[in-house]
Amino acid sequence: HVGPSFQPTHPLALAPVTAPPHSVDGFVREFLRELNTSAGVTLSRSTVNDQYLSLARTVRHYLSARWLENTRKIRDTKAKMVGYLSAEFLLGRQLGNALLATDLEEIADKALASCGIDIATLRAQEVEPGLGNGGLGRLAACFIDSLATMGVPCIGYGIRYEYGIFRQTFVDGQQVEQPDTWLTLGSPWEFPHPEHAVQVDFGGHTEKYTDTDGVERSRWVPAWNVLGMPFNYMVPGYQNGQVNTLRLWSAQATKAFDLSIFNSGDYAEAVRAQTFAENITKVLYPEDSTPQGKELRLQQQYFFVACSIRDFLDRFILDGDVRSLPDRVIFQLNDTHPVIAVPELMRVLVDIEKLEWEEAWEITKKCFAYTCHTLLPEALEVWSTELLGRLLPRHLEIIYRINDEFLAEVRAAFPNDEMRARQMSIIAEYPERAVRMAYLATVAGSKVNGVAELHSQLLRDKVLHDFSEYWPEKFTNVTNGVTPRRFLRLANPGLSELITETLGTGWLTDLERLAELEPYAEDAEFRAAFVRIKAANKTRLRRLLEARDEVAVPDGHLLDVMVKRLHEYKRQSLKLLHIVSLYEQIVTGKLSADEVTPRTFVFGAKAAPGYRIAKETIHLINSVAAVVNRDPLVKDVLKVVFPSNYNVTLAETLIPAADLSEQISLAGKEASGTGNMKFALNGALTIGTDDGANVEIRKLVGDDHFFLFGLSEPEVTDLQTAGYRSHEFYESDPQLKAALDLIASGHFSGGDRGVFEPLVSNLLYDDRFMALADFRSYVDTQAKVDAYYADQDAWARSAVLNVARSGYFSSDRSMRDYIDRIWHTRPLR
Ligand code: Z57
What we know:
Blueprint: H1 11-14, H2 24-39, H3 48-77, E1 81-85, E2 89-90, H4 95-101, H5 105-114, H6 119-125, E3 130-131, H7 135-149, E4 154-159, E5 167-171, E6 174-178, E7 190-192, E8 198-202, E9 205-210, E10 216-221, E11 224-236, E12 243-253, H8 255-264, H9 267-278, H10 295-316, H11 325-328, E13 329-334, H12 341-352, H13 357-367, E14 368-371, E15 382-384, H14 385-391, H15 393-413, H16 418-424, E16 427-428, E17 434-436, H17 437-444, E18 448-450, H18 453-463, H19 465-470, E19 475-477, H20 484-490, H21 493-503, H22 524-549, E20 558-563, H23 572-587, E21 599-604, H24 612-630, E22 638-641, H25 648-654, E23 660-663, H26 675-681, E24 685-688, H27 694-701, E25 707-708, H28 713-722, H29 726-732, H30 734-744, H31 757-765, H32 771-790, H33 792-804, H34 811-823
Parallel strand pairs: 1-4, 1-13, 4-12, 13-14, 14-18, 18-19, 20-21, 20-23, 21-22, 23-24, 24-25
Antiparallel strand pairs: 2-3, 5-6, 7-11, 8-11, 9-10, 11-12, 15-17, 16-17
(1S)-1,5-anhydro-1-(4-bromo-2,5-dihydroxyphenyl)-D-glucitol binds near residues 374 and 671.
């Protein structure tokens, strides 16, 4: 470690780091140097992987100079930073984004071509870091992209899972999970920093003692520990010379483990201990919105936030004055996963820094803000006090004290209202004593936000009602957004070029400027160009799916796409009932094939491995696809495509090709949705319920350019209260009955009625998410989609208006809202 007294004498060591020359020759030289010195091969002997790794490292060199400078500036100016704490960062491939950020796309193309290499082959070699499940993880990735682009100092803190989200394959139509070995071919984007490793303690007990100042204190006597090894990733802003940091933690065994090896003489036992430590960051939990309450998961959560808080203090609070912390950082809690950071900061301030409890609490409250991403009660994390007390005894003590003081306040404000105090308690008593992490976050956070207008309102009215009554000013909304760099410029270069030809440059970092496209919706030539681009994107998708999945996507179809995690509340089964119904009507002659608009239905979805109904739904989609796709009666009219392993990379080809975006969750269940924004931005029309950010999309693009259907949230609540019996909808709608009966008959399971019986029964006798109640409205609206699509000109006009009116959904705007309403940080310079 080089200390402050280190005085370099060579003049080159004193000069700032410089990037290689921004030219084809400069790039070639750097690339060949990487091949020779890092990969250790000559160009003629190099493999595609050697070339990809060398290309990645070459691009990295252009960024690192700016990165080092940026980090220095943040430290010197003591700028307030955002510390984005998230158990997931679903980054997607890095190469394309790095080339775009450095404005090296053309140069790299030419440089590699001159070496006889097609850059597309190298791009395809990259395995995306899938360190997230879905919306929440991808949102974190969009946010750090926007902050870098806006020059706002941010450090993302998360977990470097050795295995990210599983690779999905289908065997006989059923999902089979394979480990995601994303690191095996090398990871050129990360910088390991063993010198910044941090020790994290676990287990043991607490004890009272009298400190040297005579004060009675509590201290933690932990039983075991692991080492947190940081890996840095550069987060480049879009062509602005700003590079922020994402720091992901990996668990390793500490010296204590090594010592136990030496002492025990039991080699196998000692290695087992090593493995035990490294297990903590071994794998991403694949449940999206349904926490399993597993001990290892709590270990992951504490591990990464303990590392991150220690790291922030060590690297940015150089004078050791922890009282300045609120001026230096705001930790944004991405859902409840990092909420154990609250008692951890209290522990550091009180037990280690020896601050008074009251002062520590004032600091802690200023340092955190909490984003809630759900409305489903089963998604709200609780940790049993038994487990928490066993793994983190001191933290449990701290949580109890936070709760005692909070409840004393509540009781003072509402005397004789013990029910209220009990309802608001951070500690739940039934079915077991447990810590409600969302309540802890709400009590500790300076702000609590939902992720779309409707969601934030429902948080205030329902999920956190008592808290919003008590602290109305604490609650706010920040509607989600998506980064237009990845999801428009990189994913849809054709449309991006058309926009630049029309508006000039600048729109990519000022997305509201898309509004200037509005008049072009009336311009036949512009519409024709738009339609050509959509067709080219479909061709690109067709080629990809042919190569990737050996499926044929017909030409000239309406492309209807539903891609998202598989979840009952998202209602993939409703989409499926529509398909089965169309099929049933055509096959039985109730509907003539030439009355329906030829459509290709695309699904992409992973199911949590333990989520039975979700997995059965995947099986049913594949089974329906198999039957529909080989039936000559619907040939050329209906096609169902379900490529396996939907991920960010596939999304980037799929979304720009879509005509119709399916956003059909039961109203009041989808917190926001972000896929909905990506589709609209790429000129797909939405068929959707009045849920999450759909509400805002519809308001902005206009009712004439959005297909709304289904119950509203208040109607859902009323129907629930009145008593929902899905069976009645089945009985009273012959079309719905016929579709469900066809599935129940075994038609899609080789005559076996048992295979999909649980799914059918679930819909008929439970249907928690009211798919049957919304069926009629859905299929009627789909008929309107068909009719509208027949008017290609009107459709294109609406599609262009969707693009023109989606500027609001840039994650740059979300970041401005966080800054104004929550963080109060400023860009550098
Ligand atoms: C997750 O991806 C989301 C919520 C969760 O509670 C968990 Br756990 C994972 C999603 C919501 O379902 C989406 O509606 C939302 O758009 C996304 O988070 C980002 O806010």
